[in-house]
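INFO batch 0412 | record 1 of 1 | parsing
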Amino acid sequence: MYIVTGSIFLSVFFAFLAFYLIMFGSKLEISQRAVDVMGKRNVSIREKELSEPIFKRVLKPLLNRVFKLAARILPSEKEAQLSRKLTMAGKPGGHGPKEFMAVKLILAVTFPGIMILAEPLLGLEYTRWLTLTGAFALAGWSLPDFYLRQKILERKNEVEKSLPDVLDLITVSVEAGTGFDGALLKVVEKGKGVLAAEFYMVLQECKMGKSRMNALRDMAGRLDVDDFSTFAGSIIMADQLGIGIGNVMRLQSDQMRRKRRQRAEERAMKAPVKMMIPMVTCIFPTIFVVLLGPAAISLYQAFML
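INFO prediction complete | emitting tokens
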């Protein structure tokens, strides 16, 4: 049935396309030649609007309405919390909290809509179909939050992994006679990733008049990593007390490397415990079937006789 329907649709579509080219093909060619010779004519506002892609003409107004609806249902406290999470995640896609809530609403409506359209094809019972539709709606609502948590975790792991090397570069630059701002500029020029982008933002904020202390505090708030918060607090304290930054940086670098080694050892100690789950659920049952299966069959046959 579906193959026949698809074949009829494609046949009608290509027949209509061939009829259109036969009737209007020459006119389109003449019009294109006239445009090449005389240039484009003045286009009216209506024609200009109709020439826009369907995303700008149809989908964008709908998205704007969804954004307004998300702004109404999003409390100010929830908006502040969501804005902080988006900042910690690096603002993926450059979206704010209202756009993020709009995406959640769209997915929460789209996923069950797919189940509603697929219901005649699946042929499920009403209760099972209703359960799956609710599960799809919950998944559509929760998927952006899961993605946001993963982005935050990825940024934190990247900062914890690259922070000791960045501190070494800053230490070498400071001990070579470069100022702290110049050392941060070296990190921006030589490095890549989250820390380089955040230090670039710190330098831009300092150029616009913000103090180094406040810029580093804001950066620590955006990253929300304990190691970097400790580093920023040490730099601020050294700047206030007039202590040499080079010695502070070297101590901080050694401490960060020690913490990173301790975290690696902790993960190595947890690995055997985590390996027990797949072994117990997947490997041990198959071993028991292979070893005890013949004995169980023999015992069954002996007792049945």
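INFO post-check: Residues 155-260 form a domain with the Receptor-associated Protein fold (CATH 1.20.81.30).
INFO record closed
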